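Researcher: Please predict.
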Amino acid sequence: MGTNITLNDELVAEAFKYSPEITTKRELVEVALQEYVDNRKRKNIKELRGKIKFRANYDYKAMRK
C-alpha cells in the first residue's frame, strides 16, 4: 500500500542513531510499526494477569517432559 507521510526530521535522525543497521526511512517506519504492534500485543496479554484461573492441581512442569 503506497502512502505519503511527513515525518519529523529530528525524530527520524534520532531513530537512525539507535538503529545503525537500518539505512532507509521506509525500513525505519516498518520496524517502528512492527515494534508498536508487538508492544500493544504484550500490553494486551498483561491485562489478562489475574483473570485466568488455573486448576488447583495444575502441574506446569509435567508438560515440559
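Model: The helical segments are 9-18, 25-46.
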